[in-house]
UniProtKB/TrEMBL annotation:
Gene3D superfamilies: P-loop containing nucleotide triphosphate hydrolases. Residues 54-250 form the AIG1-type G domain. Belongs to the TRAFAC class TrmE-Era-EngA-EngB-Septin-like GTPase superfamily. AIG1/Toc34/Toc159-like paraseptin GTPase family. IAN subfamily. The keyword Nucleotide-binding applies. This is AIG1-type G domain-containing protein. One of its GO terms (molecular function) is GTP binding. It holds the Pfam family AIG1. InterPro entries: G_AIG1 (IPR006703), GIMA/IAN/Toc (IPR045058), P-loop_NTPase (IPR027417). The keyword Cell membrane does not apply. Signal peptide: none annotated. Keywords: GTP-binding, Nucleotide-binding. It comes from Sphaeramia orbicularis.
Length: 369
């Protein structure tokens, strides 16, 4: 009889535990039902963000125009990663550092309104930024200059949705660059009472904002920024943002990693044999672990910077000119001879290059993925 009661008590206890776990799961799922991409089960601990943990925090820094995003990256990392006068970059970059003791990866891509970049290059860099941020960013930090909000800046939310998908806005926070001392200035109160267009811009990002100093040596608000990011992520169920294109990026990087490992298998095997000649027992295991981690990081970086998805993007951009050239060569080559094919191939390349430049006054981010 006692055994039956004990068994019943155990089953009841287990049942209650399961109910609590499923209740938590479905409450998180319910909060994220409008975005099928943002919830990631905590069973995937290497991918899931847990506030206060040692997990790498991936931050996608986005700039509209000008130097604000580069000021922000310097402020987050606590060092001058970008020179003070940097206002644009042509290639995506990823930097590692610490924010208030938390390990962070910061990804910077060309500004949304960067003019001196072709459409094909812009699309490739957008894809590269996603490859460098796989499996997805915990937060999008959208940087503006508090003293210089332009009409383009007002349209940034619309372009963010086109670049990353409409659900990305739930993971966004506005970061406002400020020139001067932030301590005791009440600058955030000023933001709340400032011009309507700045308030409206912040509202489009769900009212989340933070003011940071352009002086990267000012570390007074690091802890507050980290807490704001962690609270935002926790409110979304503790996961990171993803989408079909981020998943495509991850698949492409893994495929490229596999190709590189196969290509370098003989080199890696030779290195292991050399280690076995020099070390024994515990020291050998440590050396092998160090070598394996170093090679894995090197291969991951190469795969993120160059893979089939990125090469396809570039090839499609260049392909327009080649197709036009081939058609023109076929049409006129019969009249002007073989020289006509060469001549019109060159013309076609120029036409294709022109088509890959954004037209004056056009939306540079339209139709990107």
């Amino acid at each position: 009889m006692y055994g039956v009661q004990l068994s019943g008590y155990f089953c009841s206890s287990l049942k209650n535990k399961l109910i609590r776990k499923f209740s938590l799961f479905f409450s998180c799922l319910k909060r994220n039902k409008s975005n099928t991409c943002t919830f990631h089960s905590t069973t995937k601990s290497s991918f899931c963000f847990i506030p206060g943990s040692a997990t790498e925090l991936r931050l996608m820094v986005v700039g509209s125009s000008g130097p604000s995003q580069f000021h922000l990256t310097n402020a987050i990392l606590g060092r001058e990663e970008f020179p003070k006068d940097t206002a644009r970059i042509s290639s995506t970059r990823r930097n590692m550092g610490d924010l208030a003791g938390r390990r962070v990866a910061v990804i910077n891509a060309p500004n949304i309104y960067e003019k001196d970049i072709s459409k094909a290059k812009r699309k490739m860099e957008l894809r590269r930024s996603k490859c460098l941020c796989i499996p997805g960013p915990h937060a999008f930090l959208v940087a503006f200059d508090i003293e210089n909000i332009s009409l383009n800046d007002i349209s940034t939310p619309k372009l963010m949705k086109k670049r990353f998908g409409r659900h990305c806005m739930r993971h966004c926070m506005v970061l406002l660059a400020f020139e001067g001392n932030l301590e005791g200035s009440g600058v955030e109160d000023r933001v709340r009472k400032t011009e309507w267009y700045l308030r409206e811009l912040i509202e489009k990002f769900n009212g989340r904002f933070h003011v940071f100093s352009k002086n990267w040596r000012d570390r007074s608000r690091d802890r507050e920024l980290l807490q704001k990011i962690e609270r935002m992520v926790a409110s979304l169920g503790g996961g990171f943002f993803s989408s079909r294109t981020f998943q495509k990026a991850e698949e492409s990087v893994k495929k490229e990693e596999k190709r590189i490992r196969k290509q370098r298998s003989a080199e890696m095997e030779k290195a292991w044999m050399e280690l076995e000649k020099q070390y024994i027992a515990e020291e050998l295991r440590n050396q092998k672990d160090t070598y394996t981690a170093s090679i894995a990081a090197e291969i991951r970086t190469k795969a993120q910077m160059d893979n089939s998805w990125l090469r396809t993007s570039l090839a499609r951009g260049l392909g327009t000119g080649l197709v036009v050239g081939a058609v023109m060569g076929a049409l006129f080559g019969s009249i002007e001879g073989p020289g006509g094919m060469v001549l019109y191939g060159i013309i076609g390349g120029a036409v294709g290059g022109g088509q890959n430049r954004p037209a004056k006054g056009s939306n540079p981010a339209r139709g990107m993925n």
